[in-house]
Design a protein that fits this description.
2 copies of one chain form a homodimer. With about 425 residues, chain A is an alpha/beta fold. Chain A has 12 helices and 17 strands.
């Protein structure tokens, strides 16, 4: 890093916070949160805002076939692959102002700081905005980063439908059409390195009074669906012995799963979605479709729990039919040592209190780590609350995260070492 | 009954079946069932069909403020209150062709048979079509008959909303406007007697090869709602010990309730609806709102089970908040002896195999029984299946039920005895 000028000195807390708050008005909820689900009208409007920011700073916009946006500041050597930073702007239906958005706002802030510092970097630096990280409207999420990294094909994603039966294929054209000034880009274009800034979504940094989490990896996850099929019948007339009550059977399975799979306190086991058919008070339910989300840092143990989950579901197929299947699975990933070291060094240089930590939540950085050296920068969020409209963070913490980001980007932007797993 | 001509001889199986099948096209589903929920576009179109039938037969149409329809054939003595027969045309979202509809079609057929037989009755005879019996869109149901009988006030019903937030007040004007030729009628106009024909919705008649069930009463019911309030949080990051998972808590309660409240095999215990917030896979649920429907012929035992249900819910309020409340409750009702005797006599005269039976399902006849002598006529349905698109019945059974109905209406239409609980 140059001794003369540091990009971090040009990170502007007020400008960052103003952008963060303005972005939060797109899909804002009455409880102070955000409902800006992937490819919704609100998310599409927010894309136009990013185009405006890009134009203000003088970046060049690109878009790929799944709607990932990229905003590029050119480097001095056109032969070099870009350093990329960013996150996502889609939210949970009752999400907060910072999840994902912070990584995008911090990326713009860091690049603007590099420009304001007058630093010319050899490599291009890009803001990446990945489509549908959350997966609450179109499940499973991570579509943008998975498509880009070649983890899942576009053809697998396009038929996915939301609750109203609208498919990704139906919803995508409006998003693609919203940014006519963005140049088309292919999936998998080479990336030198990827850095994602994000709120921690957990209580550790706040409790330990650290400002930055140097993220060393992401815990593995198994995502499953279970369908319990019973038989629709009249609630008032059908004798108990003749019933095939899907809610009754599903509740037993759910209760048993929570008891058995939660054994190890490190396990995160969640059933967050239950869709019931026909879901009316006076009809015995004919179907319950529910989600399972299991996470654990130890990939071997995680797989054991997934297998046990399947076995428990199978045990309950006496009265109703029970089918369980996996929709997404990933083992724990560990980020590139040189990347985490670079983040750590920036924290030291900036005297920012930090700690190394493992990410319990999934992030687009997982997918990028398959194709290039990757790391993440966590900042604290209030009480660790996330996926909740009450999600909060302080302007100062967000600023300090962006400072670290700006300096690491500067370093990587001048790194001409190609001895990496760059594709 | 006149020895010369019996209305039952003029009941036309083909005409009745044709009407039944035509009505079933309003809201027909791909699986052969009907989705014609109260005040839906399909239900409103079906109202116009009934207006057509009424005009064809020469009846006069009336409508009240909740959208109940009445089709009247005048009697010879304008001073006498009408004999009323009918049921409802709204269905469950995945309902069948006969539930409710049969009682309306049979009512039209019986009156037309009386007219075709050339029988002039002293009393008016009316087809009644009660609004929102099912209560699956706007809960609880029985709105039309409850409003008419003064059991519940219109003001209590108008604010009730469906899942999309549309209230009865919002949806009603379109239904009222659909039948401009119907004259306005006040709630609670005197009724001399009420008869409702309906499919059994249970397996007894078919199993015993009876064609008519002489219904002696309706079992009591307790309808409740339970709200389990947890705390929305990230599925991947929130430690198990800190979670307030509403689905986890609700599943425990549901499992416990099914075990404890189902003790007596005569009890019908159903949880048919569970609405989850936010209902997405990667967020710990903050709320589950579920329905409870308990029915038992013994009103005292039924109340005991309702109290026990409330106690069980209260026991589970450790991690999440649990609130249980009643939305509708009724004890078993027993129909007027002279009415059930009249139905029985008609069966004997027509040599129709019958049995006396208690109704496990709720019906509009319950509310009418509070204001006038009431009875019901059940006909068999295939395997007892109802509240299901596979609901089925035979043309011959439907005809035989309508024959009994026509002859009992004839008898009551000439009954000038006012020593009843007529209002």
């Amino acid at each position: 890093m140059s001794d003369k000028k540091r990009a971090s000195d040009f990170v502007d807390e007020e400008r960052l916070w103003a952008r963060q708050m303005y972005l939060a008005t797109f899909g804002e909820t009455s409880k102070g949160g955000v409902n800006r689900q992937a490819l919704s009208a609100e998310e599409i409007e927010a894309r136009k805002l990013l185009m405006d920011w890009s134009a203000e700073i003088g970046l060049t916009a690109f878009i790929d076939d799944i709607g990932n946006l990229f905003f590029r500041r050119d480097g001095t050597d056109p032969a070099l692959a870009p350093v990329m930073t960013g996150s996502h702007i889609d939210s949970q239906p009752t999400g907060g102002k910072f999840d994902g958005s912070y990584g995008v706002v911090a990326a713009f802030e860091a690049i603007q700081a590099i420009i304001d510092a007058g630093l010319e970097l050899k490599r291009p630096v890009e803001v990446a905005v990945w489509l549908n990280e959350e997966g609450s409207r179109f499940a499973p999420g991570m579509m943008g980063s998975e498509a880009y990294a070649g983890v899942r094909s576009l053809d697998d994603m396009l038929p996915v439908t939301d609750r109203e039966g609208v498919s990704v294929k139906d919803a995508l054209p409006a998003a693609l059409a919203a940014t006519p000034d963005a140049t088309h880009r292919e999936f998998g274009c080479p990336v030198f390195a990827f850095l994602e800034a994000h709120i921690e979504q957990g209580p550790v940094l706040e409790a330990e009074e650290k400002v930055v989490g140097v993220v060393t990896g992401i815990q593995g996850v198994r995502r499953m669906r279970v369908r319990v099929t019973g038989e629709e019948a009249h609630a008032g007339t059908t004798p108990t012995a003749e019933r095939k009550d899907a809610i009754q059977a599903a509740s037993k399975i759910v209760t048993e799963l929570y008891e058995q799979i939660n054994e190890d306190p490190q396990t995160k086991f969640t059933i967050g979605m239950m869709n019931i058919t026909p879901n009316v008070p006076s009809v015995i339910s004919s179907e319950v479709l529910f989600s399972i989300d299991i996470r654990h840092e130890n990939s071997e143990y995680l797989e054991k729990m997934a297998v046990r989950t399947e076995a428990i579901c199978a045990e309950f197929g006496d009265v109703c039919k029970v089918e369980a299947w996996r929709i997404a699975e990933s083992d724990s990933v560990y980020f590139d040592d040189r990347m985490t070291a670079a983040v750590e060094e920036a924290c030291v240089a900036l005297k920012t209190p930090y700690r190394r930590m493992f990410s319990a939540a999934g992030h687009d950085a997982r997918q990028l780590s398959y194709i290039c050296p990757t790391a993440m920068i966590f900042v604290p969020c209030e009480k660790g609350i996330s996926h909740n409209e009450a999600e909060n963070a302080t302007p100062g913490d967000l600023r300090d995260g962006a400072k670290v980001l700006a300096d690491v980007l500067t370093k990587l932007g001048n790194d001409t070492d190609t001895n990496t797993k760059e594709v």
